[in-house]
Automatic annotation (TrEMBL):
Protein name: Rab-GAP TBC domain-containing protein
Top-level taxonomic group: Eukaryota
Organism in which the protein naturally occurs: Rhizopus delemar (strain RA 99-880 / ATCC MYA-4621 / FGSC 9543 / NRRL 43880) (Mucormycosis agent)
InterPro entries in UniProt: Rab-GAP-TBC_dom, Rab-GAP_TBC_sf, Rab_GAP_TBC_domain
Gene3D superfamilies: putative rabgap domain of human tbc1 domain family member 14 like domains, Ypt/Rab-GAP domain of gyp1p, domain 1, Ypt/Rab-GAP domain of gyp1p, domain 3
Biased composition (Polar residues): 7-25, 85-97
Domain Rab-GAP TBC: 168-353
Entry's Gene Ontology molecular function annotations: GTPase activator activity; small GTPase binding
Xref: SUPFAM superfamilies: Ypt/Rab-GAP domain of gyp1p
Region feature Disordered, mapped onto this chain: 1-31, 85-105
């Protein structure tokens, strides 16, 4: 007989480690995400999920579920992140630091993004045709014109711009476009970043320090102990802890900040993190992970609507959405997808908002459903696969095409968010308003404010310019 949901959640809560920025449970060693740890702490909310820990090691877990067959249809390559030179970069050789003995390990191969190349990992890059390169350059110029002359609210109303973003933002302008779409300039205050870093030390710094080295252990920017990359990451997280004293720090933030640092300067990364959490991810990094818990219910209901057979299979094996979407959502898929796919998802996320996370989650489950249904008959096999999905299943074009074909409305998401508190005992009493606020970011009518424009005349002119740019 199936356990009731409260018993399931109590079992989950007791088996997973702490995400909470304010919890003493951080003091214990960090286990791998596939290991369930008994944690008998009765002094907290019985439905508190500030108890899920991320394993930053990105190990494959093949010993748990054996060889994984490739997806049925081969993934088609895609060219993404073409550099300013217009020449495709080959795998490079770079000295990397081994922190165990503080000596440099020579001749490590790295990909175009700076990650150590892992044997067997697929690459989805191909050389671009002359026509594709011309289109790429045109898109660069188009985005530069848009950023300089229009406001994000106007841009998000344009259907052609949505299509352009879904196809991928050029790497050379990605940092500027993310900041533009997120409205991070609205938050910037002169000298505030440095002022935050000069504030007295607070206890959460110890937690941040323990997480720095394991945020991106396989990326050259962050591999050197106390190198510039780690220093910048440390400064962003410490500054944010001072900036937002209610949240301070939660583990997933390090993955977000690290990705931002790969694209832009340290101070720009800080303000983008501020805007992302405040506008796009309300409620996700609270001590109780309130929005994540509500989203777990929403994903469960959406999966029942979209793929009832798979939903039933997961439920029959006591696999709750909270067990896998915690890793997906709190790190914004940076631990789940191939890096090409991560960047494409973030492009769409900054344009359309949190709805993209629901779409991508359902798309991942869609692409993996045959393997989950036919090759994962037990709880442990299902979880091992969902937390370490082979990248062959997650090629960027296929993933995004699948995600955007899914019929998903914000009305349904809102309806399930409001029902969560009455139908799921694990989220009773949690505020659903944060999720509704997050959904507003991607609304065509939600404006981040006009840039140097005012009144109806400016709005009309802005709309006309938008047509000019999207048709260019």
């Amino acid at each position: 007989m199936m356990k009731n949901r409260q018993e399931q959640f109590n079992q989950l809560r007791g088996s997973i480690h702490s995400f909470s920025s304010n919890s003493d449970r951080y003091a214990s060693p960090v286990p791998s995400s596939r290991h369930w740890v008994n944690n008998n702490n009765n002094n907290h909310d019985p439905f508190d999920t500030s108890a899920l820990n991320i394993d930053y090691s990105d190990e494959e877990n093949t010993e748990l579920y054996g060889p994984i067959p490739p997806p049925r249809s081969p993934a088609r390559p895609v060219a993404t992140n073409i550099q300013n030179t217009g020449v495709q970069r080959k795998s490079q050789t770079t000295p990397t630091k081994n922190n165990n003995n503080s000596s440099f390990v020579q001749n490590e191969n790295v990909d175009e993004y700076g990650f150590i190349i892992k044997r067997g990992r697929p690459s989805f890059r191909v050389n671009m045709s002359t026509k594709a390169m011309k289109e790429y350059r045109e898109n660069e110029l188009k985005w530069l014109n848009i950023i300089n002359k229009l406001d994000a609210g106007t841009v998000k109303k344009d259907v052609k711009m949505k299509k352009l973003v879904r196809g991928g933002i050029p790497a050379s302008v990605r940092a500027k476009v993310w900041q533009f779409l997120a409205g991070s300039d609205d938050y910037k205050r002169s000298n505030q970043f440095q002022n935050l870093l000069s504030k007295p030390r607070i206890p959460i710094y110890d937690v941040i320090e323990r997480d720095i080295e394991r945020c991106y252990p396989d990326h050259t920017q962050f591999m050197e102990k106390d190198g510039l990359g780690q220093q910048n990451l440390r400064n962003i997280l410490k500054a944010y802890a001072q900036y937002n004293s209610d949240l301070e720090y939660c583990q997933g933030m390090g993955r977000l900040a690290g990705l931002m640092l790969m694209q832009m300067t340290v101070e720009d990364s800080f303000w983008l993190l501020v805007a992302t959490i405040d506008r796009y991810m309300n409620g996700y990094f609270t001590p109780t992970l309130s929005q994540l818990r509500i989203d777990a219910y929403i994903i469960g209901q959406l999966l029942k609507d979209h793929n009832p057979k798979l939903a039933q299979h997961l439920e029959n094996n006591d696999v709750l959405p909270i067990m896998y979407i915690a890793q997906w959502f709190l790190t914004a898929f940076t631990m789940t997808l191939p890096w090409e796919s991560v960047l494409r998802v973030w492009d769409a996320f900054y344009f359309e908002g949190i709805k993209v996370f629901y779409r991508v989650s359902l798309a991942i489950l869609d692409l993996c459903k045959d393997h989950l249904l036919h090759s994962c008959p037990t709880n442990s096999e299902l979880l091992a696969f969902l937390l370490h999905i082979p990248h062959e299943y997650l090629e960027p074009n296929n993933l995004l095409d699948t995600a955007f074909r899914i019929n998903l409305s914000k009305t349904n998401i809102k309806r399930y968010a409001k029902k969560a508190g009455t139908e799921d005992a694990t989220v009773t009493g949690l505020p659903f308003e944060d999720g509704l606020k997050n959904l507003q970011v991607g609304n065509p009518g939600h404006s981040l404010g006009l840039k140097s424009l005012g009144g109806r005349i400016a709005k009309k002119a802005s709309t006309k310019n938008m047509r000019d740019y999207s048709d260019a």
